[in-house]
Design goal:
CATH topology of the largest domain: Aldehyde Dehydrogenase, Chain A, domain 1
Radius of gyration: 23 Å
CATH superfamily of the largest domain: Aldehyde Dehydrogenase, Chain A, domain 1
Helix content: 25-40%
Distance between the termini: 70 Å
Number of helices: 16
Number of domains: 2
Oligomer: single chain
Structural class: alpha/beta
Length: 497
């Protein structure tokens, strides 16, 4: 896109309205305490808005509204075709307001406008429409019985769903929870991450405009330790859906056990291995994918290919290619449509990533590219694409989720060693392998302990494929028809005659 397009985005940003209140029972309201928190743009360090800092009292009001609407059946008992029509209208409204939503996402979180506008917003709309279309196409079952009985297996909504979502894909992660939960007839309380609350609040407004009854979808911005914990511990929340770190996921498991044993579905951290075999059919394509797999979205991706495992015979050549393509991800102004990598979400995350880089150097890894903050004069939070070589799998940068543009390169001698290194992690969210050998590819599909295994590609998927992890990457699946299962429960009805 040309310079005029850049000026246009900046002009639109200057005229943008920032939603800043909670949405409870269909009304925008301040926090009961009157407290607010600043949402700051990592693009330039400027405050975008003072957002309602919801706490336990606000969560109580939101849960009460959700419970009331659920028990009254204003959404749950609407004909499936009517709920379908409302959610399809919501998907349309997301696209009708795509420029506004993309700007909110970019300014609030720091990702490039090209990604917000061409990836996050369209995929969010597609997710909503997918689950809308599923409403009248997913059937209950009739069980096999003798001639004097009928058994029916019914799927019923759980009730009040609490959803706590992360800051890296604020709108898309929200609709991954909201769309299937509403499609199955539940009411909801949604807490966006405090770093990026704006698009979730706007989603709540659009849902009302689309026809979702007041109180069915409530949005409570606030801190994780206050609003998030209040949802996790609430005695009238039937299920908690969470995407975020493994550390916080464990808190929600504890909150559930200490409260009402609410269902918990967790999509947590990752340290995904990206394996390149010496017979990879196209090293150039593999190198482009290796760079994109860690530098896309500033590396703030749960399934980022942060551990690059390369056969020792091709490591030097391959790493040169990765570094070459990594230069194309140099961070710049997120409002420039030519920018491929934007800013880290906030100063705290930037400093956290820089500390990991220093740790990598201190433990003996060889810094081959990047490693420093950039554009400090703008007030923004930018880090250069960073590549380490000579990493051992026992190093901190190979063990812990950095959630930034930092690639750790390891080598292996044979397939068995590659699989052993790949699986030597507490995480199991995703993995990838590049090889021409069909037998090696199929061995990898079975051997790699991960919820998604990509062969000769990376991060390839669509809404029809389930997404979630093994081990401490969590349990439960987002996306696909399988996501409907966690927001419903089975009821058996047995009739004898």
């Amino acid at each position: 896109m040309d310079a005029l397009a850049r000026i246009d985005w900046q002009d639109r940003a200057a005229r943008l309205r920032f939603p800043h209140q909670a949405l409870i029972d269909g009304k925008p309201v301040p926090a009961a305490s009157g407290k607010t928190f600043a949402t700051v743009s990592p693009r330039d360090g400027k405050v975008l808005a003072e957002v309602a800092a919801c706490d336990r009292e606000d969560v109580d009001r939101a849960v009460a509204a959700a419970r009331r609407t659920f028990e009254q059946g204003v959404w749950r008992d609407r004909h499936p075709r009517e709920r379908k029509a409302v959610l399809l209208r919501l998907a349309e409204l997301v696209m009708e307001n795509a420029d506004e939503l993309a700007l909110l996402e970019t300014l609030d979180m720091g990702k490039p406008i090209r990604d917000s506008r061409s990836i996050d917003i369209p995929l969010s709309a597609r997710c909503i429409s997918y689950y809308a279309e599923a409403i009248d196409k997913v059937y209950d079952q009739v069980g096999p019985t003798g001639p004097n009985a009928i058994s029916m297996i019914l799927r019923e909504p759980l009730g009040v769903i609490g959803a706590v979502v992360p800051w890296n894909f604020p709108l898309m992660m929200a609709v991954w929870k909201v769309a299937p939960a509403l499609a199955t007839g539940n009411s909801m309380v949604l807490k966006p991450a405090e770093q990026s609350p704006l698009t979730a609040i706007r989603l709540g407004e659009l849902a009302l405009e689309a026809g979702v009854p007041p109180g069915v979808l409530n949005v409570v911005p606030g801190m994780g330790e206050t609003a998030g914990q209040a949802i996790g511990r609430h005695m009238d929340v039937d299920m908690l859906a969470f995407t975020g770190s493994t550390e916080v996921g464990k808190y929600f498991l504890r909150y559930a056990g200490e409260s009402n044993m609410k269902r918990v579905a967790l999509e947590c951290g990752g340290k995904s291995p990206h394996i390149v075999m010496p017979d990879a059919h196209d090293l150039d394509t593999a190198a482009q994918n290796a760079a994109g797999g860690i530098f896309f979205n500033q590396g703030e991706v749960c399934n980022a290919g942060s551990r690059l495992l390369v056969h020792e015979s091709i490591k030097d050549e391959f790493l040169e290619r990765v570094i070459h393509y990594g230069r194309q991800w140099a961070p710049a102004d997120p409002l420039d449509p030519a920018t491929r990598m934007g800013a880290m979400v906030d100063t705290r995350q930037m400093e956290r990533v820089l500390a990991y880089i220093e740790k990598g150097k201190a433990e003996g890894a060889e810094l081959k590219a990047g490693g420093q903050r950039l554009h400090a004069e703008t007030g923004g939070c930018y880090i250069a694409p960073t590549v380490f070589d000579k990493v051992r799998n026992d190093m901190t940068i190979a063990r812990e989720e950095i959630f930034g543009p930092v690639l750790s390169t390891l080598t292996f001698k044979d397939t068995d060693e590659a699989f052993r290194i790949a699986n030597d992690t507490i995480y199991g969210l995703a993995a990838a392998i590049w090889t021409k050998d069909v037998s090696v590819a199929m061995r990898a599909a079975r051997a790699l302990k991960a919820g998604s295994v990509w062969i000769n590609c990376f991060d390839a998927s669509d809404i029809t494929a389930p997404f979630g992890g093994f081990k401490q990457s969590g349990f439960g699946r987002d996306k696909s028809l399988h996501a409907l299962e966690k927001y419903t429960d089975l009821k058996t009805v047995w009739i004898e005659f």
